[in-house]
Amino acid sequence: MDNPYVIEMLHITKRFPGIIANDDITLQLRRGEIHALLGENGAGKSTLMSVLFGMYQPEEGEIRKDGKKVAINNPNDANDLGIGMVHQHFKLVECFSVLDNIIMGVEPNRFGFLQKKEAREKVLALSEKYGLRVDPDALIEDITVGMQQRTEILKMLYRENEILIFDEPTAVLTPQEIDELMQIMKNLAAEGKSILFISHKLAEIMAVADRCTVLRKGKYIGTVETKNTTMEELSAMMVGRNVNFHVEKKPAEPGEVILDIEHMTVASKVHKNNAVKDVSLKVRAGEIVCLAGIDGNGQTEFVYGLTGLEPLVSGKVTLLGQDITRASIRYRSTHGMSHIPEDRHKHGLVLDYTLEDNIVLERYFEPEFTNSMGFLRRDNIRSYAERLIDEYDIRSGQGPITIARSMSGGNQQKAIIAREIDKNPELLVAVQPTRGLDVGAIEGVHRQLVAQRDAGKAVLLVSLELDEVMDVPDRILVMYEGEIVGELDPKQTTQEELGLYMAGAKRDEVKA
Amino acid sequence: MKKSFWKNNAVQSLLASLICILLGLLIGYIVLLCINPAGASGAIMAVIKNFMNYSRASLQLKNFGATLVKTAPLLMCALSVLFAYKAGLFNIGAAGQYTVGICASLYAALAWHWSWIACMLFAILVGALWGTIPGLLKAYCNVNVVISGIMLNWIGLYSTNMILTKVKETTSPYTFHLATENPSAILPTLGLEKLFSGNDKVTLAIPLSILLAIAISVILEKTRFGYELKATGGNPNAAKYAGMAEKRNTILTLAIAGALAGLGAALMYLTDFEQWQCTTSSVPGMGFSGIAATFLGGLNPIGTIFASYFIQHITSGGAFVDKTMYCSQISDLISSLIIYLCGFVLFLKTSMNSIIARNEEKRAAAAKAAAQAEGGDR
Q1: Within a domain: residue B261?
Q2: What is this structure's pTM?
Q3: Residue B107 is assigned to a structural domain of this protein
Q4: Is A353 in Cβ contact with B230 (below 8 Å)?
């Protein structure tokens, strides 16, 4: 076979109302290579993969398998062509065993009766061959995220897929698990599988990929050999300019204690156990404290407990010397606490409201915005929104009357940050404030957090991004399985040490 | 600009509603054709003409009045559904709240001989209480409002039958006439009967319901309460995050919705236009038609006024279908077909928007291609 490419997507163009998600994009995957697809959020990576899986039909362009043009009309066609994908959010049945999940949909059977024995042998053989350690009989809900991911990989191998797509596979893993995954990917490629690795983490791409295709704002920027390039060059291709990764800030000058949490315990919604177990911490004026950890280690429940979205099982929360353990959300919000929520669509915005109505979401009842008869003072709302739009550079189609749903993610986030900071809080709780933002916007958010700190406010940052955890805060607290297992100084620690704490491999007794 | 005209929300709502009405009439016509081709055109015209089927002007006016009398309660039920819908709650229980409103107003009028205003307030109160039940269940036990609403509809119906049996005529299943038993419970006409050739069933109910529609519109658009309500409807999580009392708002919203439906019942039954039949075995359709009127009215209180009138017009018009050619249920079938199609307003609006977006894009692409071609020529 003289055609080295196993899958080619040539000149793909896919439009959606209002935007061109993919504009003349070409991606060629060689047999047996690890090919990275790099781009920021919204660059068109997901759309391109959806086209490959037949979930969208492109307006222009064609897909070739082994040099022959193919039509992919639905995910089943993609499956028949040997294309498999590990999604960012795993598609596993929690209460089924690893083996059951792997054979699901292609169960070997005789007269309708399952033949699990041969399936088990095949799975064990595969896991042996590629070094994918799993326990076929363990339930998904009992195993680690890393093992769940290996189950997903086995699912593809069991179906004898030749082309394996990994969609941001490292987002949920610890640094140690990431290393293991990298090795697995190399093993797979060595055995002749072709791998498409979607990521926006440059270090991983440099470490594992042979070639890298870069997308930016729906356009094809180029394909480079990783051995001939540098992280700086890739980064410039991805964002279109050189980015300052480091956050500039003066040394912190911590003052009095603003937030004091003692022995907080919060119940879990999914398990019988508590999600947050006996957590104590203090945040002082003029410092940024970061709560770090891998997703799902109780950070979300901790924030819910702190902000009043969920009741505490036990413990005490003191804000500015006042016990707010049982205070309402409204009370906390009007007495010095601001909260940039983890999920801006779930909690942060009423998407069908206008920008101005979203900007006053926590203040609409104040006399400035509602008169004594209960009528809204529309003119004041408008001028307040206009001021914030101006000060925080929130861009939108129609200014204050833009429907929030139609705004870009970055500007939605800017609106939330403007709303929360303009309340002039003593404590700012910022939960993954840069999630889904592009590099330029991330810089802006980090500057805002540091500015709050320098103005003598207390900032509690909850983050999953290692770079953010290392760069922004003055103190790092690591959360693992609902407990704080370590306090680190970002100036003295390393990502490796942080990783050990995040994975639960190392822990100290932390005094609040 | 032409583009912005078609994009205008009000224009779209109106257009979508009109298309739905036409589709409903068309399908109704096809059904009539299937049953009996000879009378189809006549029958569909009879439905559309309603009171215009009479040739004498005075009779026309009188029957126009009759349609209006039944429009008022329908409008109240539609407002009840709409108000809850804005808060993200589907008040299918409006039918039951309307039913207990009937029970309250008639029992107060016939058993206790209260005056119309007291009967009306009592119906509002009972309707509100009936609405509070699913509200409490939703707020504190997270019980689906639709399920509890439907169950309460039936509980309401049979309770009403049971209670109103105490004030029914001995020889028939119907409740006493207000005119003979307690004329003070009949709503004042405010002289409106003079406009409708002496139809004294045309009362305060009609202007009152229209005023309430305007009031609901103001509450939703201009007040803090409306802001909270719509925020809760749009995103309950964000409402909670913003510190709104979502439980209280849920209960209050359904109580108000219940009050509106309960008032609707009083506006109907305190005119002595109809008596309650104590053997009724189905929940009155008024509350369900209210759902259709809400959507046909483009989820806008003012639009709902016209939508309610239209639906009542069609329903009353059904009575004029030639019964020698069609069985007597045909009028209900035709009006229900149209009402059913009314539910497609939102769907049509969404399709319209995607068509507009696609056309714009094509035009933009064409313009871009043309610009490029031009550039290439040079």
Answers
A1: yes
A2: 0.77
A3: yes
A4: yes
